[in-house]
Design a protein that fits this description.
This is MBL fold metallo-hydrolase. The chain has 280 residues and is an alpha/beta fold. It has 6 helices and 16 strands. The strands form 3 sheets. The protein has a 7-stranded mixed beta sheet with strand order 8-5-4-3-2-1-16. The structure holds zinc ion (2 copies).
């Protein structure tokens, strides 16, 4: 299979060993055959520091996938584009809009793509940008979902997300997308924040790829605000998938990760951190 060798390195996460930087954000580096793919760009610059310390040259990426337009996934886009003038960028429609987190009792917080990242995208030649509405393969065996249908009534976007600072219009974060890798031993799924919901996302990738076996899931599972009903629903689905590994990262939530460890077990659940490498 053309995916061999497949190597996924976590570059940015909320957790990191001492020798690497941590921040609230996410990014991963994928080596698949002779292709190099950057998935998200973190928030504040841990990406550049960690990439350098891990010997990864961001200029080598031929593909950049943006999971969604939140500040912690699109934060250092200008710096990435400064060193990379070739990567084709795959993002879902409407990544580039204003977005807010309006928690009751606190001031509204602007959490969309930073203005400087927005400008950096707008300055690119249009042929480098692919706004996708439907799933596509960026190479054989490597897919990007585009917007994920929300079929489950149990899964919501996971927070007080709005398109305005007056809480008039809910932000469904329709641009939320994930990647999948079809290995000989099953599908490996890479999530940004998974605002579309983990079960929705896995169901969709199975349907689109026509492949059922889930080998592993890596990334932000955004269970941090999930109630017991949603947690149980998600854990039941995980048991049914029988994955080899689950690597909860970023916005999965500390307590929720502990629950996952309790319910699914530490043979399968390996909490992620920057520098972690998953080999296909
Ligand atoms: Zn996030
Ligand atoms: Zn997000």
């Amino acid at each position: 299979m053309s995916l061999s060798p497949l190597k996924i390195t976590l570059l940015v996460d909320n957790n990191a060993p001492e020798e690497l930087e941590k921040e609230h954000g996410f990014s991963a580096w994928i080596e698949a055959g002779d292709r190099r793919i950057l998935f998200d760009t973190g928030q504040l610059g841990a990406l550049q520091i960690n990439a350098e310390r891990l010997g990864i040259n961001l200029g080598d990426a031929d593909t950049l996938v943006l999971s969604h337009g939140h500040y912690d996934h699109t934060g250092t886009l200008p710096e990435v584009l400064d060193v990379n003038n070739k990567a084709r960028i795959y993002m879902a429609n409407n990544l580039n809009i204003d977005r807010w987190s309006n928690k009751p009792g606190t001031d509204p917080r602007s959490i969309g793509i930073p203005e400087r990242s927005r400008q950096a995208l707008l300055a690119l030649p249009p042929e480098r940008i692919h706004e996708i509405q439907t799933p596509l393969y960026v190479m054989p065996g490597v897919g990007v979902t585009g917007p994920v249908p929300r079929n489950s009534s149990v899964e919501d976007t996971g927070g007080p997300f709005y398109l305005d600072n007056a809480s008039k219009d809910h932000d469904l974060i329709e641009d939320d997308q994930s990647m999948w890798f079809e290995t000989d031993d099953g599908i490996i799924i890479l999530l940004g924040c998974c605002h579309a919901g983990l079960v929705n996302t896995v169901d969709y990738i199975r349907r689109v790829s026509g492949k059922n076996k889930i080998r592993g899931i890596i990334g932000g599972m955004h269970l941090v605000n999930a109630d017991d009903n949603r947690l149980n629903y998600t854990f039941d689905a995980m048991k049914e998938w029988q994955p080899e590994f689950l690597v909860p990262c970023h916005c999965t939530g500390e307590e929720q990760t502990v629950c996952m460890l309790d319910v699914i077990g530490d043979k399968i659940v390996k909490p992620g951190q920057a520098g972690m490498v998953i080999q296909g």
